[in-house]
Amino acid sequence: MNDSPEDIVRKRRYLSPQEKYQIFIEATIAKAQGNGSIGEVLRRWGIHATDLSRIRKAVEEGAISTFRMRKSRKPKVDYAEHQRLKDEKERLEATVLEQAAELALLKKKDRSG
User: Fold this and answer.
1) Is the pTM of this model over 0.85?
2) Which residue positions in the chain have pLDDT lower than 50?
3) Does 88 lie in the same domain as 49?
């Protein structure tokens, strides 16, 4: 059986992100069990140990970058929107103060009148 060069070259396997994560989980479980079945996981998925190393590194980097992000309970507003809201708040506060002063004057007139 003579293999032609086309038969020897393996076709590149493209894995989805979900498949890569599944490989990571299976390899992690195999490593935790300590029964040496990581090779079985690699064979089943048709990948090499270097591919698994890259997957592990990507999962680690993704987790670290996710944990680095500061989560804020407040929604983020851009500066222009923040400034507009601040100006509106000041305008409304001034209106409330004017109305409070007018109300005080009206009450004073009503008592004296």
Assistant:
1) no
2) 1
3) no
